[in-house]
Amino acid sequence: MTVRVAVCQLAPVLGDPGGNLDRALRAVAAAADRGARIVVLPELVTSGYVFADEAEARRAAQPADGPAVTALARAARDRGLVVCFGFPELDEEGRLRNSAVLADPGGVRAIYRKVHLWDREKEIFLAGDEPPPVVETELGRIGLVICYDLEFPEWLRVAALRGAQLVCAPVNWPAEPRPPGERPIEMVRVQASASVNRMFLAIADRTGTERGVEWVSGSLIVGPHGFPLAMADPAKGEQILVADCDLATADDKRISPRNDVLADRRPRLYGEVAGA
């Protein structure tokens, strides 16, 4: 079954939770109007990213049953969608988490807490300690990770081994210098991960400038062969990209008549990779 996937590249604003939620809901509706059934929004889309300190992040945080998650889960239900998005979570014990939600017409199906924290996130958030969820939806098996998680090949392989056909990743990619003519390395990593795991990846980056930080604005959707199916134009700022994906093709891990990227693994020899 072919399903239309959308990634929404947005520019949330620090200190404007109502405006951020409205922006996210409008993007979900616009993607649905273009036929999308799976919609991915950026990391911390309800709050913005460059917090001055933990206190500012805490003021922006909400519990998992707060107004932002409730409203976006309702949009998933009302439009018959799978929606993935990031938000600053105040967990059951009052700790701050950089979290993402996967919601479908049945409600919130998974909340993932970012395991690999980037730079100053370690001063604000508590890292998660659970593997990436893979949720069986009516549209396919969908995994969920956040931003810096993508730089750990083991993490995407875990999602593949758990049966993910598509991994959705809300991200905020800070722009870094690169040689003229080269694509941002974050995008190259995503293409490589899709190829080596033979699965789809949908990446929703943010855009704009926040407290002096520029963003890659590199949202993209990649197929199991590692080639982009849709890719943002960084010069266009906010935008919605769509691609039609036959998620079942990600179940075929063969790359030749005699080779399979999962079956050919030799885990007994990989102990050092896992620190064993």
From TrEMBL:
Superkingdom, taxonomy of origin: Bacteria
InterPro entries reported for this sequence: Aliph_Amidase/BUP (IPR050345), C-N_Hydrolase (IPR003010), C-N_Hydrolase_sf (IPR036526), UPF0012_CS (IPR001110)
Domain CN hydrolase: 3-247
GO BP annotations listed: putrescine biosynthetic process from arginine
UniProt key word Membrane: no
Keyword tags: Acyltransferase, Hydrolase, Lipoprotein, Transferase
UniProt cross-references to SUPFAM superfamilies, sorted A to Z: Carbon-nitrogen hydrolase
Gene Ontology molecular-function annotations: acyltransferase activity; N-carbamoylputrescine amidase activity
Protein name, UniProt field: Nitrilase/cyanide hydratase and apolipoprotein N-acyltransferase
Higher taxonomy: Bacteria, Bacillati, Actinomycetota, Actinomycetes, Streptosporangiales
